[in-house]
Amino acid sequence: MTTEIEKVRNRLIRTLQREHPGLERADKYLEDEQPLKFLSPVLQQELGDRHAPIVIGIPRYATEVFDHRLEIRGFQVGSENTDLSLSERMTDWFEFNDGGFLAQQAHFEGLGLGRAYAIVGPNEDDPDMPILTVESPFDCIHELDPASRAVRYGLKEWTDEGKVRWVTLYTDQGTRTTWRRDRSEWVEDSSEDYGFRLCSMQPIIPNARILGRFRLNRYDQRLGRPVFQAIITIIDALNKIASDMMVSAEFHALPRRWATGLNENDFIDEATGKALDVYSMIAGRIWASNEDKAKFGQFAEADLKNFHDTIKLLVQVCATLLGLPADFLGFQGENPTSADAIRASESQLVKRAERMQGALSPTWSTVQRLRALHAGEPDVRELRQIEVGWRSAATPTKSQEADAVTKLVTTKDSQGRSIIPLEQARIDLGYTAAQRRAMNKMDSDALADPFSVRESADEIP
Q1: Of 63, 15, 60, 16, nearest in space to 356 by CA
Q2: Phi-psi region for residue 199, left (φ > 0), alpha (ψ -120 to 50) or beta?
Q3: What is the CA radius of gyration of the chain?
Q4: Cα(169)–Cα(153) distance, rounded to whole angstroms?
Q5: Mapping DSSP to helix (H, G, I), strand (E, B) and coil, where does residue 382 land?
Q6: How far apart (Å, rounded) are the C-alpha atoms in residues 362 and 346?
Q7: 67: number of CA atoms within 13 Å, CB side?
Q8: What is the C-alpha separation between 283 and 246, in angstroms, rounded?
Q9: For residue 10, which phi and psi values (nearest 5 degrees)?
Q10: Distances in Å between the alpha carbon of 29 and those of 120, 175, 292, 314, 320?
Q11: What are 177's strand-pairing partners?
Q12: Strands, E assignment, 137-262
């Protein structure tokens, strides 16, 4: 008899398989491998292997542009009784096993495929440092609780080197169950109860909607969608025009010729006695005939300007739909004239990136809460108030950032207090927790013995 947990497993496996066609489609655009659309089959047959599709990689470029503006700076436990040591541990947990790089991978996958997943688990070698992994949506799927909108179930499916299929199901009751496929049946391999009520798999979705509708080979909007979804048909048209331009360029470099008064023998290769192929007749430099009435000529060369204008128009449409500045895609001749012009041109891009940061913050807060729970921390109220610090989605220079932070530190109130403390200034400038601890130690050493710092500096060659 099938148990309730096995029914959930089977349902999620079907959902994961259902989502694969949409993910495959998005992945092809992300990797510049999508098929060429709008090309006549007759033309493909005529050109044969001389026709290679031209694919312009705007989907991947757009994914990278937004990914570059989604960089996590650190974490802060926010409450009236803030535990600074807990905030430092949050950052240490994140930096453990390259959390910054894993977040970058997850954001790229989430932007390109609609979603990615983070899984937190215990670390047998170091229980104080739980392990974080990020997973592909091709292998994972989740289901939300309709009442709380929290993750109720999460499933990961994979095949090992021995071609054995495995499935792991995570629940919001803090349990993890793993099965392996034995012939036609799933056999339970292991099960564990972590002792807290939170699903250890969390979806990372930059763009999600509340209402989702399943349509064959389309996206369930609740599961996210690629950042370039709105320009897919425009990209198909752009690649078609670019490929047509190359076909036209072939005949522009080798203009079409015409001839009258020739007979069949004029199209026979004298060396082999075989008929000339079509390309040899097009590309041949010299045509000659013994016929007195033979006449030769060529058609006017093709002008590619119409292709250039169409490509530029389609690229402009892509930039508009993506919110990218004109100079990002190269169809504006000059760069913005000033820093203010740069900020104005990037306003739409920056706002979209900030909205994505807002959408991703709850997930990363939950991931950090999971790491605290797996490390043995009590599930106190503070763990539900974890703030995610993001680097600015705008593009200020290093000097601009330093100047702004310096003003906040040096500006003091009537009681001589700075607007922000020195430690916060170092956080805002992007120094890691380890670097800040080293700086604090230098500050303490300098206060204890001012000459020690000077002597250490003098020893540097």
Answers
A1: 63
A2: beta
A3: 31
A4: 7
A5: helix
A6: 26
A7: 25
A8: 16
A9: -65, -40
A10: 30, 37, 57, 17, 19
A11: 169, 191
A12: 140-144, 151-159, 165-171, 175-182, 185-193, 201-204, 257-260
Q: For residue 71, what are the contacts with CB-CB under 8 A and spacing of at least 6?
A: 100, 103, 104, 390, 391
Give the Cα separation of 75 and 90 in Å (integer): 6
Q: Distance between CA 269 and CA 259 in Å, rounded?
A: 17
CA 281, 287, 292, 295 dihedral sign is positive
Task: Show pLDDT as tens, one digit a residue, over the chain (461 residues).
Answer: 689 999 999 999 999 999 998 899 999 999 988 887 766 666 666 656 666 678 889 999 999 999 999 999 888 886 555 555 777 788 888 888 888 899 999 999 999 999 999 999 999 899 889 999 999 999 999 999 988 889 999 999 999 998 999 999 999 999 999 999 988 899 999 999 999 999 999 999 998 788 766 665 566 778 888 999 999 999 999 988 888 887 777 666 556 666 776 666 666 666 676 766 554 555 554 455 666 677 767 666 667 788 888 999 999 999 999 998 887 877 665 566 666 777 778 889 999 999 999 999 999 999 999 999 999 888 888 788 888 988 888 866 567 677 778 888 888 877 778 888 887 788 777 777 677 778 888 888 777 776 555 554 454 44
Q: Could you tell me how many residues make up the chain?
A: 461
303 to each of 39, 148, 241, 246, 287, how far by Cα in Å?
20, 61, 14, 12, 25
Kindly state the DSSP code that residue 169 receives in the 8-state scheme.
E
Strand partners, 155: 141, 169
Q: How far is the C-alpha of 189 from the C-alpha of 180, rounded, in Å?
A: 6
**Residue carrying the six token digits 């989907």:** 59
- Output the pTM of the full model: 0.79
Distance in angstroms (rounded) separating the CA atoms of residues 307 and 293: 39
- Tokens 């097009």, residue located: 282
CA 300 to chain centre: 46
Coil, strand or helix: which one is 42? helix
Q: Which residues are registered as beta bridge partners of 389?
A: 74
Q: Assign residue 193 a region (left: φ > 0; alpha: ψ between -120 and 50; beta: otherwise).
A: beta
Find the angle CA(358)-CA(364)-CA(367) to the nearest 5 degrees: 155
Report residue 336 CA to chain centroid gap: 27
Which H/E stretch holds residue 187? Answer: strand 185-193
